[in-house]
From TrEMBL:
Keywords: DNA-binding, Nucleus, Transcription, Transcription regulation. Residues 185-211, 223-244 are annotated as: Disordered. It comes from the Eukaryota. InterPro entries: CheY-like_superfamily, GLK1/2-like, Homeodomain-like_sf, Myb_dom, Myb_dom_plants, SANT/Myb, Sig_transdc_resp-reg_receiver. Signal peptide: none annotated. This is Two-component response regulator-like APRR2.
Amino acid sequence: MVCTADDLSAWKDFPKGLKVLLLDEDSNSAAELKSKLEAMDYIVYTFCDENEALLAVSSRPESFHVAIVEVSIDNNNGSFKFLETAKDLPTIMTSNIHCISTMMKCIALGAVEFLRKPLSEEKLRNIWQHVVHKAFSAAGKDISEPLKPVKESLVSMLHLQLESGEPKNEGLDKTEDASVIHEIDPEPSTASDKYSAPSTPQLEQGGRFLADGDCQDLTNCSTEKESCEQDGESKSVETTSDNTIAEVTAPVGQPLGPREATVKEEADLVDGTKGESTMYSQTQNGVNNKDSDAVAANPDIVSGIHSSCPNKANRKKMKVDWTPELHKKFVQAVDQLGIDQAIPSRILELMKVEGLTRHNVASHLQKYRMHRRHILPKEDDRRWPQRDHMQRSCYPHKPIMAFPPRYSNHVVPVGPPYPMWGPPPHPSSIQMWGSHSYPPWQPTESWHWMPYPGVHADAWGCPVMPPPLGYCSTFNQNGSTFHCSGTVDNRSGMPQNSVEHQPAEEVVDKVVKEAISKPWLPLPLGLKPPSTDSVLAELSRQGISTIPPHINGRNLT
DNA sequence: CCCTCAATAT
DNA sequence: GATATTGAGG
């Protein structure tokens, strides 16, 4: 029968006494196998006939923890039948024949492993792992609060094995299953590795994937393992890992309340980057805002940064990764402020990202500027070799950032202003900020700021360089911080922005026309929404004096 | 104190 | 090599 986690934790010298059902038509082979198994203190029940074996399994399932079943050429049906019948019993298939399809079939039918004969001690020694694995995955499924029992069982098992009444400081709580196994394993033989190392990683992983939520614990643990390893190497480990352990050890044995949160925090503790990226990727989904109104802070996005650890102390400084989302906010803030007013503190304010520090922003800003300075001039020169009068400021941006509608992008005189900082040509392939270790971003929404010729892109991808005096800030739907010193009074409702000479007036016209004809689309950059005043003026000029209330409510200044 | 730049670390 | 953090200088 399936061994439960509880059984395991109560099991004195596991895996001694493990009950093995052995089914092999070849009695010699069976005897040989049996002796080997018994040498490891396994209890072996040998069957040479699969019917008998099946009978035994069904009549007294509690008598077996694991089965080893020989697959022979002539009688593989029997073996398969066994597999199908004894589903609850972790069954290892073994055979002389080395036929991939047979192996696959066995696995597909539920075999936990396929071992090629001859079965060395090394191969046999660790078959108990399947029992453990099954026990824990079963625990995960059956119990409403799946993970806790598993954890507890693991802990108690460790205690047993380590024979230390005290919780070892190893952060038991955090120990991943793999390492648990190693600790228990009498001899983590290296030799066995090349053979089969029963309970191969694949198996366990498979288990995790299958059980998914149920086995999250394990998954997380494995994550943590990696983290720990990293920490073990990193120089600043001492503090970090110690803290982690200290904090983490305490909750052992206590009811783990909000599991997920806890785990995340822990992961976060151990390794900021990882936790962070994880959380980002999680939050991102919900965050993918409809472009413009996103100036508003989204607190969620922050959670990844490091705020997740309210509890105290010397947390190592988290590495902020500038996800597209974050960067987008950043760019928005910069645009809103104007490049010359974009200083870290204000950007930080505008971004409203909790946990983000001024330093972080400053650093990012530094990079941002660098990119602009180095990349833009090239682009610019390339495009307007002789239009040097444009660069009234040190920033060679053209005053017109508006893109024509996507179908007419061929007339666009400007390319992506931020080649480097823009997205890669194909949104799906990106991962600009993320290091290789990041889970891939959702290919779609992450790059709103990308300067493809669509309307949205302009907003994020093509921040406008404010003219030196009286600039119009980037279009801002909220209008909250919108200060436009230029043309509030313009009667036409169209921006007549003062630019004396423009590279391509037709383009401007086109853009404006487009903007007018499709008022539901966000305005291209460089165009500002008409002020309330101008709208009212225009309306009255056209003889319309009554204004629906909601228009008034929506002020633009 | 804040910003920027440069050095340093990952 | 790129990116983020740390530190020094203004």
